[in-house]
Amino acid sequence: MRLQDSIVLCIGGSNATMRGVATAISAAGAQIIITDPSTKNAQHIAEELGCIGEQADIAEEVGVRRLFKHTGSITHLLIMIDPIGYSNIFDMPFDGASLFMDRKLWVIYRCILHAHPVLCSHGSITLITSEYDQWTTYDVAQTHLASVSVDALVQATATSLAPIRCNVIRPGFVDSVLWDFFAAEEREVLRQHEQAQTLTGTLVSPQDIGTVAVALMTASAVTGVVIPVDGGKHLKPDSSVPSISEVVSIFICCIYDTSCGQYEYRLPYKYMIHNPI
């Protein structure tokens, strides 16, 4: 099976990882449709990659329905939803905690539900998650819970939608411009530590993830599996230890502020992001 003449819909925004993945898929001969909540970003990525850019707010049912109605038939679906933040199970009220499932599991579920009628029977669904489904600590418990639920959804989807295939790519630390907000010295400390945790002595690139995505889309006998792309980190004895919070303490703590109805994402190196609910 080849990707020539295939149409691949990539959902999850125009970040560095998605751009690298989309580039690898395009190089394999597929036509790419990539979505972003921002019309401007969607247009920019379309121009950069020579693909089709679609504005889509997948957080809402109407946005997902509109997206699949507009795109029409597709061969493969690729979804990457980043964690919305990190938190202890008991750090926030239920309405806040439910956002972790709403923005992760149920967003993906909704996309799969609406994709099914327009997805080719010989096609596939590929989800890009994170290593948070492999380990948990008290400060990433909500994210772990949502990530593990996605793994279960993949198996349910693979059995329910067969012969359409469904698989997961589970990257480790991705070496990309995502970390450029750190000072060069801090970024290098992080990179060296992550590199030391792998068996291969290499860091994961967006292109690595794209290569595996192409393989899963073209391997007609592979379905219902989780593929780690982490340089063998999952095989090391200490791989269950969350490296980011352990070494440079840059994990994001999600704290609910009842006075303003916001989640405050805290980065110790004086980087603050405020996202309204």
The percent range for helix content is 25-40%
Proportion of β residues?
Answer: 15-25%
Radius of gyration, CA atoms, in whole angstroms: 18 Å
Q: Return the string of H and E elements.
A: EHEHEHEHEHEHHEHEEE
> Looking at the structure, what is the overall shape?
globular
Low-confidence stretches: 239-277
- Counting helices, strands and paired strands, the structural category is alpha/beta
Number of strands: 10
Kindly report the average pLDDT value. Answer: 81
**Number of H/I helices:** 8
Could you give the distance between the termini?
Answer: 43 Å
Record the strand order, biggest sheet. 3-2-1-4-5-6-7
The biggest beta sheet reads: 7 strands, parallel
What labels describe this entry?
277 residues, alpha/beta, three-stranded antiparallel β-sheet, globular, disordered C terminus
Care to describe what's here?
39% of the residues lie in helices and 22% in strands. With 277 residues, the protein is an alpha/beta fold. Strands 3-2-1-4-5-6-7 form a seven-stranded parallel beta sheet, with helices on both faces. Residues 239-277 have low confidence and may be disordered.
Please describe the topology of this protein.
Blueprint: E1 7-11, H1 16-27, E2 31-36, H2 39-49, E3 52-55, H3 61-71, E4 74-80, H4 94-115, E5 119-128, H5 141-160, E6 165-171, H6 184-196, H7 206-218, E7 226-229, H8 243-247, E8 253-257, E9 262-267, E10 271-276
Parallel strand pairs: 1-2, 1-4, 2-3, 4-5, 5-6, 6-7
Antiparallel strand pairs: 8-9, 9-10
